[in-house]
Amino acid sequence: MSQTFDSIFKDDIKRVHYQIDGLSSKKSHIQVVIWPTFSGLSDFERRVADHIASLGFSATALDLYGIENNPHEMDEKRAKMGALLAESEPLHGLLAELTQSACDAMHGKTIVHVGFCLGGRLALEAGLHFTESAGAVSFHGLMSFNRAQSEEKANTHTKILILNGYQDPLVEESDAQTAKGYLTSLGIDFQFVDFSNTMHSFMLPSANNPDHGSQFNPLSAKRAFGYLANFLEEFV
């Protein structure tokens, strides 16, 4: 699997991240690393980076798959996501490399991970497994993130914000409760927010497939951005 993983995600892969400095001298030391959906880096993540920068924070939207490597068909997206998540060790190696590339030469930065759908899970894993992570925010991310092998190996100093659609079919109530129990057992400072009448992908303006549990919700999206802004202010 590791050889296949490298050929898909690492070998000869050229990436161009979207990076924008914060507009406030008091907040720009906070570097927000944005993990995309399973579709890869798009204008949506770039707009999120612009929004975060407008609040004063620095932001980098990561090019997860590489230039011209974004999957387009649903089967391709699912296959690529499956290969990415199949094994924790190569996955975390890639997450660490991409985080470093986003924050290279930024000594003294406070790193906060933010992600959407697949990216929500990746943000949680980066927050939990990397000691340099100060925080993580998941927007409609899955609760099947890899747990740390032991409390000693978990980054228990991180802060976590999970923003979830209560009608998201990909997050069962039992999944949510298990995740909350796990974070509680580690003593992690976390918030778990459910938005009523809200499905999966509620942040994505392009999401419009309610029969399959995925739909944009402008009110929940607005509220979620408010939660994000308040969360980032805790690191100032």
TrEMBL record:
Residue stretches making up the Dienelactone hydrolase domain: 29-234
Coiled coil (residue ranges): none
InterPro entries on file: AB_hydrolase_fold, Dienelactn_hydro, Dienelactone_hydrolase-like
Organism encoding this protein: Marinomonas pontica
Annotated SUPFAM superfamilies: alpha/beta-Hydrolases (SSF53474)
Full protein name: Carboxymethylenebutenolidase
Pfam families per record: DLH (PF01738)
